[in-house]
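Our platform keeps sequence and structure together, in a single record for each protein. Such a record has a labelled line for the sequence and another for the backbone structure tokens. This encoding replaces a full spatial description with a residue-level series of whole-number codes. Below, we set out a record of this kind in full and without editing:
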Amino acid sequence: MAAPRRVIDVAFTEQELVDLERVSRSRTEPASHVQRACILLTYRRTPSLYATGRAIGVTHQTVARCLRRARELGVIAALDDSPRPGREPTITGEAKMFVLDLACRKPKDLGYPHEVWTTRLLAEHVRERARSIGYACLAHLAQGTLCKILAAHEVKPHKMRYYLERRDPDFDAKMGEVLSVYREVEQLKQAAERHDGEPPAVAIISFDEKPGIQALATTSPDLPPAPMRHPTFARDQEYVRMGTRSLLAGIDLMTGVVHARVEERHRSREFIEILKQIDAVYAPATAIKIILDNHSAHTSKQTKAWLAEQPEGRFAFVFTPKHGSWLNLIEGFFSKLARSVLRHIRVASAEELRQRILAAIDRINRRPVIHTWRWRLAEPA
């Protein structure tokens, strides 16, 4: 008489099944995890050790072992290998803390010309000094072991990450002013909807300059794509510099219309010229509120003198805090322009660059996009 078929009962929750399906299809999970997930899913559909083993390509003993682990440890925990005893660690915890202390110091402070550590240099430094400071277990420290110690504590002394120091003591107050202007924009939009699109008495413009746009010319003609041969355009690596231009632009936050000029420089006189251009667009009774940064041209004597000649209340400037240009909506427009129009651009002259930038802005103004600020807008002022 044949022996009864052995069935190992394993309970699966809905979430565990979803996780197993994800792991079984993954291309980045360890191969052992993928295989065990496939074993569990196959056995759930066909509760036979031999059939599951044949389907996956393993023995029935392997299937049984995986199922027992899933029943004892849990379905997801069964995907991991069991811990092995291994050799007793020879590097003490105090020695590891010593290594981490060194890693958190700059090598130049210890007499090296390097600005940051390399793992090879740090391992060499530890080996040379290990015995003299009482950590003989580090006398033969390998570079790979050092990397494991650092990785376990998430320390990467060979890398440098930049941050921006807040140097404006009034940062929060100035940010609040800018956010208040964005709230005012939302209120004006709602008021315009209630009054059947009647133009508001205030125009709010986000303004900035994008300097240093390079006018680069090719030295050889670009080659077009060729089907089944060359999928992309091809360009000679050499180029000729034709100078640079600065884009001065402001977006009307109510209409999305962009006011722009392309100049050789961005001094006070160029800033005043675009203010004149903006002034000519709006009705004399419209108050123009401009969000802008702290560039010297925006606060120069020449600019202040021109503003003093304008009717009272015509222009009002709201300055972003120092190192707070990310609060200015125009930065998003510049980013999109750089990625769509200026990327890979080549021109025959600086004048062609100017014309193409202005043509791109004219194209944008045919179907203007209203830029809207969302971050912290719902918070009370």
Remarks:
- The radius of gyration is 33 Å.
- Residues 255 and 370 are 6 Å apart (CA to CA).
- Residues 14-79 form one domain.
